[in-house]
Amino acid sequence: MSTTTYIIIMAVCLLLSAYFSATETAFSSANVTRLKMLAEKGNSRAALACRLAERIACELRIPTYCYEASALRPERRNLAVCRAGEYEALPEKLAHAETAPDFGARPFDEGVARTGATTVGARDFLIAVNFNLNTTSTRRANAIAFDVREKGRPVREGNPVTGKIVKDADGNPVMRPGTLRATKAIGWYIEEYGIAQVSMNLTDIAVTPLHVAFDEVCRKADARGVRVTGTEIVGLVPKRALVEAGRHFLRKQRRSTGIAEEEIVRIAVKSMGLDDLKPFRPEEKVIEYLLEAEDKQKRLIDMTCKEFADETASESPAPGGGSIAAYMGALGAALGTMVANLSSHKAGWDDRWEEFSDWADRGQALLRELLHLVDEDTAAFNRIMAVFSMPKSTDEERAARSAALQEATLYATEVPLRTMKAAAKVFPVVRAMASEGNPNSVSDAGVGALAARSAVLGACLNVKINAAGLKDRAKADALVAEAEALAAEAVEAEAEVLRIVEEKIK
């Protein structure tokens, strides 16, 4: 290669480098503005989607549109708007600012001709759901779908079915919106089952939850002489959708919602007929349950009572007093919750079901928190043990080991303090149940208070013994002082509950 040719090639490369550098700077500048706007809206998912769109445009040189929650223009929330005209319309869309992509806008060139454009969106989890109908009529199913879907149906002149479609000034059909926002729906006939269905996508379950869609489809179906016989979820579903549904149907029954999560999910399954066509197995359909199943780590709270007791009694130092304290707190919360649920369901107290349901919800939340702390306390101890296996041959290794030990010790001190705080919150529940709950269960509320006090005082001992290993004595003293204050309050709270109990059982 001649010197002249080499110089020319280098010059071209420098020019190209400058071009791409300038392009990337322009993309980045645009992105900063867009991300600032999204951050102001508090939409982190949308901001991440825009960052991805920017990378695609900058690194892969592919023009990119943002849609759904990441849309930078209101009209682009609908993916169909971004895709309008498909590939064939891309040269024209790139030529105008109002139709150009959000990132990577440039005149149609050989690169774009090869890659086309792409889209990046952000949204909440989409639920695909089919509502089974006691009809074989696709027309009836479609009518129900048009009644509820956000898009609705075209406005017609005269006859609402056969009349001429009304159009706007641009020649587009005028639509009468349906009753459910953030939904898309259509009716169809399923040969496999021999029934018609309303097939629906819930694009934002924060706007239209699953149970709201179910109730509305049932209402519209009934208005047309059709009945919803069951529901079919296509793919996976987030746990919160079923928990919200179960709580909704429990409230409709005027029953306490402060029950175990598994029971709430079962109520949702039965209420919406999710097992109408085939068995619905939450462990296979609920995202969180699938993820938990992949976590092979054995938890203490998954053991039977006997297994937990035997493990505690073994020569292993963990689980120890900290985990047991948390478990006693969980049992105290469980007893308070039990009395609340019994009171909510007591004959003659129907007008108070919601009052006791609220107490049961509080108890359930504390129960879950304290059960988590059972394993968390043992994990904190194991972190300390892991530090002792760290190397200590050099000054650097010894320094790192010492720092890790202090960090682990601080964590092992903070966990039982969290147990104390959670267990202390049990007292308002058991006190209310001893005073206002089912009088036949007042002793259960008393035992709950005893368990909560033991949890607080037991965890306090663990705070003190672990704090002794902290080099930061100011921090250690502050933690111990907080723990001792909580312990004193627990003793007084227990005594108050027991006075109420003793008075009622005389």
Provide tags for this entry.
single chain; 506 residues; alpha+beta; Formiminotransferase-cyclodeaminase, Chain B, domain 1; Alpha-Beta Plaits; Four Helix Bundle (Hemerythrin (Met), subunit A); 3 domains; two-stranded parallel ribbon; 8 strands; flat; disordered N terminus
Could you characterize the architecture of this molecule?
The chain is an alpha+beta fold and 506 residues long. It folds into three domains: 110 residues, 2-Layer Sandwich (Formiminotransferase-cyclodeaminase, Chain B, domain 1), CATH 3.30.990; 167 residues, Formiminotransferase, C-terminal subdomain (Alpha-Beta Plaits), CATH 3.30.70; 208 residues, Four Helix Bundle (Hemerythrin (Met), subunit A), CATH 1.20.120.680. 59% of the residues lie in helices and 9% in strands. The chain is built from 18 helices and eight strands. The strands form three sheets. Strands 6-7-3-8 form a four-stranded antiparallel beta sheet. A two-stranded parallel sheet has the order 1-2. A hairpin with a 4-residue loop joins β6 and β7. It is flat, with a radius of gyration of 31 Å.
Q: Report the major sheet.
A: 4 strands, antiparallel
Q: What is the percent of helical residues?
A: 55-70%
Give the strand order of the largest sheet, numbering strands 1, 2, ... along the chain. Answer: 6-7-3-8
Mean pLDDT: 90
* H-E order: HHEHHHEEHEEEEHEHHHHHHHHHHH
Q: What's the CATH H-level superfamily name of the largest domain?
A: Formiminotetrahydrofolate cyclodeaminase monomer, up-and-down helical bundle
Give the helix tally: 18
CATH topology of the largest domain: Four Helix Bundle (Hemerythrin (Met), subunit A)
**What is the C-alpha radius of gyration, as a whole number of Å?**
31 Å
